Amino acid sequence: MSPIATSSLRDASSAELSSKVAANVKVAPAHGHELAHQTPLQALSHGKVKLSGPPSFDSFAEKRQWQLEHMAAAFRHWASEDYVEGMSGHISVRDPENPESFWTNPIGVHFGLLKASDMILVNFDGEVIGGNDSRPPNTAGFLIHAAVHKARPDAHAVCHAHGIAGKAWSVFGKRLEMLTQDACKFWGDAQGVYDEYGGVVLGPEEGERIAAALGPRGKGCVLRNHGILTVGDTVDEAAFLFTSFERSCRVQLLAEAAAANGLSKVIITNEEAKFNCDVEGDREVCYCEFQVYYDWEMQKSNGDFRN
Q: Are 220 and 230 in contact (CB under 8 A)?
């Protein structure tokens, strides 16, 4: 058989197959029914055994210790992700008994060395009232975190570090686009942009402006010429959201580079982005997402960060 005849048969076969596939493709129904009778975390757990969200505690002391251990694990994870840049970067966790105070890390200690016992308790007036008194907290960290905790009583944890991708994307002063499923955690008012830059934060006004830019429902905020910030109901949620935000910034930068060479970006629709945000941005889901990192840090260090 001639090459031309073979080519014609191949084209016809391909067209027939495409027609059959198209006939079997159905338009996806509108979302919503998947979560009608179950939580997002239950929906993600296939079968009878379901993952569970954050634990409950019988005392403030138990919850406080648990928070500090998970806070230390978050720093160990950040060290693994190479978010260390000198003395920059901080995490805060609201105290369960005294909600107008929060725990934060001492300035000048490598994230990979931090333990639960290293954390400092500071009140909204900036006074150190408990915990480690051998080193001070970071001034910029206190001013930013205090402002966010005051503005957002629901935000029990705040994360900020100087990751490479977050800093690089921040120079544009723009929101992340909904390019991937992971980025959809920051759809709509779950993402803010602080489109100003006032230098190193050494006064309360800058922290207050950052908190305002985050908004009442923000989970992540781009800080122009500075980096990114995330919040959560638990330190686990906030820490996982930070890693996801940082990686989404990297994906955006890679996509922008490809688009500059003529490729077109396909943005996820608002309907799909909202659905993804409702599922993957759920506080219990984000808590569970972080546990894979917590377990890995436990394995690597034999749990020494809990001390």
A: yes
